[in-house]
Design a protein that fits this description.
mainly beta; OMPP1/FadL/TodX; 14-stranded antiparallel β-barrel; Porin; 8% helix; 45% strand
């Protein structure tokens, strides 16, 4: 009985905290919190708010007693184009649903001079596409509406995280370690894919598409450390474990391993350097192991959808390089800017299935500021622009036909913070 109660609680939190279409570095966010996002996510070695636990739990040892309430408006523009006659109708199709609200929360409390606990709630990422059921004029699905001839087409995946953190500093604050148990919830639905079952591509066609919204729950952990190597020069590192999730039973015929969709592990390493009293420069590297998750990393050319070694989206691992700088010209204002780059995870040979999840972004350009309102309250703002990226390749089920996947993104984030 308690388990079902926890499921309903987590499902409610998922509805409140998970983004509906956050796909920046694959489907991981480019940063966490307004301050972190304004620095392009280069915050592994720089602790400024309670949301730092989402990237390096050791940083919580340095932020004091505080509450951070944040809201982001995220806008992705997704499109695919089919060239040449064949299975799919030729032409361009844009995805609907281009604006998504995303809340974030962080809280920290110092137990004593060296120990701090905290809580963060945030969305790590998700995938969303929503293609209108336009009638195909040519191709295999001629006369039938929808990308794959089965009506309105797309998927909607969202992830929410509840992270508790314990951090401890040592040697008068020169070093810190932190650990965060991670509790995660996912929601997913798919539609317009039933023809893959009709043509024999799924081991379980009844659990492939148009089965409504399903939920998945699981847990993992993140550990991190922070060290002051020299006065003003800090090194940070963290590791997030694989988050083992329950299966999407309603979509056991779509995802490998009968509906498995774990969240991949990742590594972060960063340096932060106080160039002078006003200027701080930050550099991070993040590595995400998408290929370890069979439903994400398995290539589309393979066994039937739903099998342990079944077809997937064919995503590669990602390594992202992030640079951010902030300047504090006076006690009231802090100005920030950043840029990040990571080679997108989709090969040209995998474009067909990734019409559903075109996570092709590579560059992120960011900026923002904070403005103190008295001694305890601060307002922060961040903006992100990710220019259009296009990945092209052949349709593996239709020789002579090619597909272009494109996306661009824009977001605004606002934060209200209070120190206690």
């Amino acid at each position: 009985m308690a388990w079902y109660t926890h499921r309903y609680v987590l499902a409610g939190l998922l509805a409140g905290f998970a983004p509906a279409a956050l796909a920046t570095n694959g489907y991981f966010a480019h940063g966490y919190g307004a301050r972190g996002k304004a620095l392009a996510g280069a915050t592994t070695a720089l602790a400024q708010d309670a949301i730092v636990a989402a990237i390096n739990p050791a940083g919580l040892a340095y932020v004091g007693d505080r509450l951070d309430l944040e809201f982001e408006l995220f806008s992705p523009h997704r499109e695919y184009r089919v060239n040449g006659g064949g299975m799919l109708a030729t032409g361009s199709v844009e995805s609907d649903s281009e604006y998504f609200p995303i809340p974030t929360l962080g809280w920290s409390y110092r137990l004593d001079d060296s120990q701090t606990v905290g809580l963060a709630m945030y969305g790590n990422g998700g995938m969303n596409t929503d293609y209108k059921p336009l009638v195909n004029g040519n191709g295999l699905f001629a006369g039938a509406p929808g990308t794959f001839g089965a009506g309105r087409t797309g998927i909607d995946m969202a992830q929410a995280f509840i992270v508790g953190t314990y951090a401890r500093s040592f040697d008068h604050g020169r070093y810190a370690l932190g650990i965060s148990p991670i509790f995660a919830a996912q929601t997913f639905k798919a539609r317009g894919l039933s023809t893959f079952g009709a043509f024999g591509f799924s081991a379980d066609p009844d659990h492939l598409s148009d089965n409504g919204r399903d939920y998945s729950f699981g847990a993992g952990f993140r550990i991190g450390g922070l060290a002051e190597l020299l006065p003003g020069l800090r090194l940070g590192a963290s590791y997030k474990s694989r988050v083992f999730m329950s299966k999407f039973d309603r979509y056991a015929g779509l995802f490998a391993q009968d509906g498995g969709f774990d969240i991949p592990d990742s590594f972060n390493v960063g340096l932060s350097w106080d160039v002078n009293a006003a200027l701080t420069a930050n550099f991070d590297v993040e590595h995400i192991r998408y290929s370890e998750i069979k439903s994400v990393g398995n290539p589309f050319r393979g066994n039937l959808l739903g099998y342990a070694d079944g077809r997937g989206f064919g995503w590669n691992d990602m390594t992202i390089y992030k640079f951010g700088a902030q300047w504090k010209p006076d006690p009231l204002w802090t100005l920030r800017g950043g840029v990040s780059y990571g080679q997108q995870p989709i090969e040209g040979s995998e474009v067909l299935f990734n019409i559903l999840a075109p996570g092709v972004q590579e560059w992120h350009l960011t900026g923002g500021f904070s403005r103190a309102l008295g001694q305890r309250v601060e307002l922060s703002f961040a903006v992100m622009y990710s220019p259009q990226k296009t990945v092209s390749g052949p349709n593996p089920l239709s020789p002579g036909q090619s597909i272009d996947l494109s996306m661009s993104q824009f977001s605004l984030q606002f934060a209200w913070s209070r120190r206690f």
